[in-house]
Design goal:
The complex is a heterodimer.
Chain A: H1 2-29, E1 48-49, E2 52-53, E3 60-67, H2 71-79, H3 81-89, E4 94-101, H4 106-120, H5 124-133, H6 145-154, H7 159-166, H8 172-185, E5 192-197, E6 203-204, H9 210-222
Parallel strand pairs in A: 3-4
Antiparallel strand pairs in A: 1-2, 3-5, 5-6
Chain B: H1 2-39, H2 50-55, E1 61-62, E2 65-66, H3 67-81, H4 87-115, H5 120-141
Antiparallel strand pairs in B: 1-2
Classes of the chains: A alpha+beta, B mainly alpha.
């Protein structure tokens, strides 16, 4: 009787082990390491000065704290930014600023430094969008110079100039500013948005969906 | 012999009830993750962005099928196998639970070693599968 039970159990274990092995192999080999780089059109025709997108005189400033490797930041760029750009930036009611944090890993820092190079050319936001479109697995080493060049080209950025700037000491300044501002405002996750009217103190938003963001901007505009 | 079998079955009844309770908990977790997957959102997560990282990784699907949905079907199959208490049903429960346990172990390894992100919902499901595996093995051995 016991032998029969043991045999049944061993058969179940063996079959389960086989199924798991097949599933693990299939799980490892599936998927795409990085998506193809897409051409950017979202920000076409919108002025950008020093990394700030939109009319410099817009009454409300929306600042997004991001890590370029953060998948939720990429999702926010796809799902939240288009509405924000269409309804508030193109209308001149708000301008968009960004702080590139690099807490996920070295790939984040390299990407942020190249983003700073794109900002020098007035193409930061297209670069961010193109980077998210080609975002790979965190800290997998996909942020190579070759990858960054492809992203830069898709964003209409002079890739050589951006990568050269990324190697300069000046590229560290936006990273330091992002860290300092995040620390001052108690921001410890990305994406996080802040909203400010004029030179007023920024208000840190807890949500990053388009409805919450629109409500926060509307509230600032109504003040 | 009949008395012994009846006694063993009586001992195993609490194990069967416990298995059903754990499978129901797992069903709830997998149901939530499946719903979030198809809704296109990200799971509420105690660890910053861990769930989103795991959910949006290539490991979130197996041959195009969301892993959360596979978990949901797995827990449903375990519950269905618990509807009967024969030797065959217990062996089927053990197979399903052990396969779930093994695959959960693989996914936990992926989270820690490859994604460097922990999804608390996935960990909760892995705990359920571990309990189910232990309970189902005990039920087979007490037949």
């Amino acid at each position: 009787m016991f032998v029969t039970r043991t045999r049944r159990l061993l058969a179940a274990v063996a079959l389960a082990a086989f199924v798991v092995a097949v599933a693990a192999v299939a799980s490892s080999s599936g998927g795409q390491p990085a998506k193809p780089v897409a051409k950017s059109t979202l920000f076409r025709g919108i002025p950008e000065h020093d990394g700030v997108l939109g009319d410099p005189n817009a009454p409300v400033t929306v600042t997004e704290y991001v890590d370029l490797q953060c998948p939720v930041c990429a999702a926010a760029a796809r799902e939240t930014l288009p509405t924000l750009v269409r309804d508030y930036v193109r209308t001149g009611e708000a301008k968009l600023d960004v702080r590139t944090l690099s807490f996920i890993g070295p790939d984040s820092e390299r990407a942020a430094r190249v983003a700073a190079g794109a900002a020098q050319q007035g193409r930061l936001w297209p670069l961010l969008e193109a980077f998210y479109a080609a975002q790979g697995q965190e800290n997998s080493g996909y942020v190579t110079d070759e990858h960054l060049r492809a992203v830069a080209v898709a964003a209409g950025v002079d890739a050589d100039a951006a990568l050269e700037f990324a190697d300069s000491a000046a590229a560290q300044e936006p990273l330091n500013r992002a860290n300092a501002d995040a620390q001052r405002l108690g921001i410890d996750s990305t994406p996080t948005f802040t909203v400010a009217r004029g030179d007023g103190a920024p208000r840190v938003l807890q949500a990053h969906d388009e409805r919450s963001l629109a409500a926060a901007i509307d509230a600032e505009l109504a003040r | 012999m009949i008395a012994r079998a009846a006694g063993a079955s009586g001992q195993a009844a609490p194990l069967r009830a416990a298995s059903a309770a754990v499978a129901l908990a797992g069903l709830g977790i997998a149901g939530y993750l499946t719903t979030v997957h198809y809704a296109g959102g990200t799971p509420a997560c105690a660890i910053a962005h861990g769930c989103a990282t795991v959910q949006q990784s290539k490991y979130a699907e197996l041959a195009g099928v969301p892993v959360a949905l596979l978990g949901l079907l797995g827990y449903a199959a375990v519950l269905a196998s618990l509807a009967r208490d024969g030797e065959g049903a217990r062996t089927v429960t053990a197979f399903l639970s052990l396969a779930g346990f093994g695959f959960s172990g693989w996914l936990t390894y992926v989270e820690v070693a490859r994604l460097d992100a922990i999804c608390s919902w996935c960990v909760a499901s892995a705990v359920c599968m571990t309990l189910l595996a232990a309970l189902s093995v005990a039920r087979v051995l007490r037949m």
